[in-house]
Amino acid sequence: MPAAAAPPFDPLDPLGLDDLLDAEERAVRDTVRRWAAERVQPEIAGWYERGELPVIRELTRELGALGALGMPLRGYGCAGASAVQYGLTCLELEAADSGIRSLVSVQGSLAMYAVHRYGSEEQKERWLPPMAAGEVIGCFALTEPDHGSDPGSMRTRARREPGGDWVLDGRKTWITNGSVAGVAVVWARTDEGVRGFLVPAGTPGFSAPEIRHKWSLRASVTSELVLDGVRLPAGAVLPGATGLGAPLGCLTHARYGIVWGSMGAARSCFESALGYAREREQFGRPIGGFQLTQAKLADMALELHKGLLLAHHLGRRMDAGTLRPEQVSFGKLNNVREAIAVCRTARTILGANGISLEYPVMRHATNLESVLTYEGTVEMHQLVLGKALTGIDAFR
User: Fold this and answer.
1) Distance between CA 393 and CA 396 in Å, rounded?
2) Residues 270, 342 contacting (CB under 8 angstroms)
3) From the first residue on, what is the mean pLDDT of each consecutive set of 10 residues in the chain (396 residues)?
4) pTM score, whole prediction
5) Where does the Acyl-CoA dehydrogenase/oxidase C-terminal domain start and stop, copy by copy (predicted)?
């Protein structure tokens, strides 16, 4: 039997990775890609330049209607999608902007996941359906002004009062969605260890001033949370969360989305550079015809599609229930670092135009500087992998 003819080479899918997806996965990807193209891409440069996301509540409701919020969770109005489908959603959202993917990640993989994984049935029934619909925005408050990579040293405290109420005091910072959240998942030290608390917006003593003057993730709401004698009923504590392993488990779930999302930013920059190299002429020919430019494009394509292969592999492992936290660290460390390299190389191909918001390159590059840091810095993920490789804990 003669061998089947190989399909034509696709510069945008040189390894034929589309063949790894089934029809339902492609449909999810295409739906999210269309939504991002229609709702985000026409406005994102202006939002970024002005440092605002003025339609965050409208976008959140639309994302809820798409089933993108709490996407892999089951029940309570959540889509119950596969890990790969969720990863593809993160890929397409971050191809539009990291801030949009962060909105979805914090809502679903941090706030909603914490309630779904560690909450009581009453808490799940109260919060998850409106959060899945995008009617209530959530945030996840772990990082503090003096404690980012070392959350075990957090100073926010919760004390139990006679009668069962809890009183929280402390500060959290760099909290995505904080100023617009209807509920905050706040982690605090207690006499029993680290516990999680659901703090509704408007609770006396709780405020969330927005952080301004950012040069990264400008189209995203980032806030400080202030807890000054915040009194909560006994039913506000997440009953299944005791110890630092609970918030770290949430972070592992969210980091998985970053493995995919960072490749969306890289893809956007690669495609922009490729198109520019085909059209921009210097010395009487398109710059894509020069060897140095072709070498850059080849290296960018290699790292982009190796990162996508890694994301696919981790997604299949998550769906099989065999994904380990160390493997998520592997993906987060590699893919974000390589995505930044792709963006920087794309900037050189675009020359001076690479710094203009007429193109997405510099916006993605600056956004990824935040993605590189949050949910585990390079150094923290290197140490996670170092411990896994050697069996020796070098964190302290």
Assistant:
1) 8
2) yes
3) 82 96 98 98 97 97 98 97 98 98 97 98 98 98 91 93 95 97 97 96 97 96 97 97 94 96 98 98 97 98 98 98 97 98 98 97 98 93 96 90
4) 0.95
5) 243-389
Closest to 65 (Cα-Cα) out of 91, 84, 39? 39
Tokens found for residue 174 = 């760099």
What is the pLDDT, as a whole number, of residue 2? 65
Tell me which amino acid residue 372 is. Answer: L
Smallest Cα–Cα separation from 296: which of 357, 359, 361? Answer: 361
Q: Are strands 193-200 and 138-141 parallel, antiparallel or unpaired?
A: unpaired
**H or E stretch including 159?**
strand 157-160
What's the pLDDT score for residue 261?
98
What are the structural domains of the chain?
17-132 (1.10.540.10), 138-242 (2.40.110.10), 246-390 (1.20.140.10)
How far is the C-alpha of 178 from the C-alpha of 168, rounded, in Å?
17
Q: pLDDT at position 387, please? A: 95
CA 167 from centre of chain: 31
Query: What letter represents residue 290's amino acid?
Result: F
Q: Is 375 marked active-site?
A: yes
Structure confidence at residue 100 (pLDDT)? 98
Of the listed 25, 94, 303, 375, which one is catalytic?
A: 375
Query: What is the distance between the alpha carbons of residues 39 and 23, in angstroms, rounded to a whole number?
Result: 24
Query: What pLDDT score was predicted for residue 1?
Result: 60
Would you state the structure tokens that stand for residue 389, as one six-digit string? 């490789």
Closest CA to 66 of 97, 99, 35: 35
